[in-house]
Each structure stands twice: as C-alpha cells, then as structure tokens.
Amino acid sequence: PHCKKDFEDSLSNGKSKILEIADNIEQVLLKIIDTRQALITGIRLLKNGSLNYAYEDISAQLDQLLPKELLLKTSYDWLNELPRYLKASQLRIAKAPHFGVKDESNSLELNGLMNRWSKLESDPSLRDSQELALLRWMIEEYRVSLFAQSLGTKIPISAKRIEDQFKKALRENS
C-alpha cells in the first residue's frame, strides 16, 4: 500500500480472510494427519523383501513432505497440495505387491532428483531461492505423474521440465 487509506483497506480485507484461511489450514492438516497414519500402517506391509525399496522411498517422502517445521517451510499454496501427494502414495501402496516393472526405476529416479535438490537446498546462497522452492514441488508433482496419474498434476510436469528447473535454480544463484 502506498497510502494510509490503502493500508487500512488491505488490513480490513485481510482480517475477514484470516478465519477462512485458518479453517482451510485446519481441514488440510486434519487430512494430512489421517492420511499419514494410514500410510504408516500401509508401508509396513512393504518392509523387507523385494518391496523394501518402496518402503524406503515412501518413508523418505513422508519425512520430506512432513518435517517438524511443516508450517514454517511450506507455503500456503503448496500446503493445500499435500493431501494429494499423500493420496498418490496411498494409491501406490494399494497396487502392492503388483507394482509393475517401472516402479523401482521410478523410485530410483525420484531419489536421485531429491538428492540433487537436497544438495542445492543445503547451499546457503540458495536458501531463499524461489526457483529452488518451485523445483521441490515439481519433483512431488512428477511423483504423482509417475505413481498416481489419475490424481492429475497442478502444473505440467516432465523429467525435462525438472531438468530445466534445476538449471533455472542454479542460474538464479549466478
């Protein structure tokens, strides 16, 4: 706002939206809690044996999606997508033990992408990078496209788009 009146108008409009947003966040968090618990129960069936890679993959995904600082690290827009990401993992688990031949290679590909992202994310010069933040969520969208296409993606996604986003994140730092 450029003047006091604009500021007061914005403040008034914002106050009315606070409860609406808080209610939405509450609903999203309740979905996340319920789905997370179901996932933890479901992935136990994958532990050990030939499906252990899926157990490790989904466990890592849960840790990455739901850190202790979830509300501090996750923007409101992407917070609203978390239930869909968790649902995608539920759909994947439901296919066990008949994952198909690509499941393990898709897990390895995603693991490689997350490792590359984590290295960039640990670089202090990239901590506030919007391009790096978008990359994180693009990887989750890619996961949905690989394991639960029926849920659809929020944005157009492909391996090439992710590679292009890695380049953008690095250029932003240059």
Descriptors for this entry?
single chain; 174 residues; mainly alpha; 0% strand; globular
Number of helices: 8
Which regions contain 5 or more consecutive residues with pLDDT less than 50? none
Tell me the total number of β-strands: 0
Beta-strand fraction estimate: under 5%
Report the sheet with the most strands, covering strand number, pairing sense and barrel closure.
Answer: none
Helix content: over 70%
Mean pLDDT: 93
Which sequence of SSEs, written as H and E, runs from N to C?
A: HHHHHHHH
- Span of the ends, CA to CA: 32 Å
Shape: globular
Indicate the structural class.
Answer: mainly alpha
Q: Please, could you describe this protein's structure?
A:
This protein has 174 residues and is mostly helical. The chain is built from eight helices and no strands. Helix 2 runs antiparallel to helix 5 and helix 7 packs antiparallel against helix 8. The longest helix has 40 residues. It is globular, with a radius of gyration of 19 Å.
Write the layout of secondary structure elements.
Elements: H1 4-43, H2 52-65, H3 70-73, H4 76-79, H5 82-94, H6 102-121, H7 130-147, H8 159-173
Helix pairs in contact: 1-5, 2-5, 5-7, 6-7, 7-8
